[in-house]
Amino acid sequence: MKRRAGIALAVLVLALLPGRAFAIDEQLLGALKRVQSVRIEGNSAIKDGAIRKVIKTGAGSFLGLRSLPLYRPDFLQSDALTIQNLYARHGFLSATVAAQADSGNQPNRVIVTYHVHEGPQALVGAVTFDTTDAVPPSAVRGAIRLRTGRPYDPVQVVLDRGAVAGVYADHGHFPTVTTRIGGDSLSVAVHFGIVAGPAYHVRDVAIAGVKEVDTVTVRRELLLGPGDRFQRDRLIKSSERLYDSGLFNSVEIEPLRADTLRGELDITVRVRERKPRWVEAGIGAGSSEHPSLSAEWGNRNLWGLGRAVTADLTYGYNRPQVYRFRGALAYTEPWLLGLRVKGRVVPSFERGFADFGGVTYVQQAWGLSFGLSRDFTFSHSHMSLTLDNTWTQAAERFKGRDRVFPDTALAAPYVRRWTLAYDQ
Questions:
Q1: pLDDT digit string, tens, across residues 316-366
Q2: Taken in order 47, 53, 56, 60, is the CA torsion positive or negative?
Q3: Tell me, what DSSP letter sits at residue 14?
Q4: What is the CA radius of gyration of the chain?
Q5: CA distances (Å), origin 357, targets 53, 304, 354
Q6: Whole-model pTM?
Q7: CA 63 – CA 245 distance, rounded (Å)
Q8: How far apart are the first and last CA of the chain?
Q9: Element of type H or E holding 216
């Protein structure tokens, strides 16, 4: 109540200021009211729920669990235009929408009504396009989402024009794509005019933004080099590979047409590097470990070539001579033997304990892991092969000393495990 009185007083003071004309802000006065309900009339082709999803003006919840939203008069015209555009995307090109606000059942309540006049619906009568030798007609037809017999969508025409240009760019061309719309208000014919232009080849590749990362590391992830035919999809995959390397926060690859007569272009790769080194630490507590500590250190860019080394330690204390410890050192070679195969070796040591029937058992394990993995860029898949070697020793904690069990008493002394994995 105090907030409403304050707003009203501010409006009155501004209105009475001498020496200037002042119109009371309708939006400010509208903010004193709340939307009781939103009604939609005259719609049959598009349901109420689909319309309510795109408008800004809302009402209270069905069960009254949330307060009524503030009434915003400036939203009404915007919502009417939004609904009209929604109808246009469903083929109702002559649809009109009018917004109306009426008083509710209380002085500070408003009922908003949108009156819809749908008009006739236009369907796609025909979709045609120019054919060229540069791209198969089936590829162009597959890129166009407009279909004969479906509602005409003027926004989809623009999207399809870009999709057709993208198909040609995948084949090395920078085409000029235009659209010609014909027909009548009920049946629309769409024709895509295509001028393919020359097929471009890469003349030079420039790298910008590198500081600690060697340019060789960037170039080996690129799927395009001098002399190659330009392909847009390879440009996109190159950007993904650079991101996947983990060395960069941002990657921008820009083609620049250098010679339009000879069909040559230059590619500029701009990157922003991530910090190569990091340190992380944590602390916790539990019923068997109080406290528990963890720490990790890593460098993702050894010698500027994307090689990585990581060291991690965990320690959990229970009582003197009874603790849990694990340490591992991992080294990763991103391009093993000049191939895009990631190699990884991890030596580790782990010491743990467990209490059974008042007896504490201690187990120590030394590990050595070797791994190979490969990312397949175009199929978005990953394959890995891992060999884990573990040497284990178990003992009983008895009167402050470890009594070692025979090798086969509690655990096998040596375990070798192969793992082959494929992710799609």
A1: 988 777 788 999 999 999 999 889 999 999 999 999 887 776 777 888 899
A2: positive
A3: H
A4: 34
A5: 62, 54, 10
A6: 0.72
A7: 51
A8: 59
A9: helix 215-219
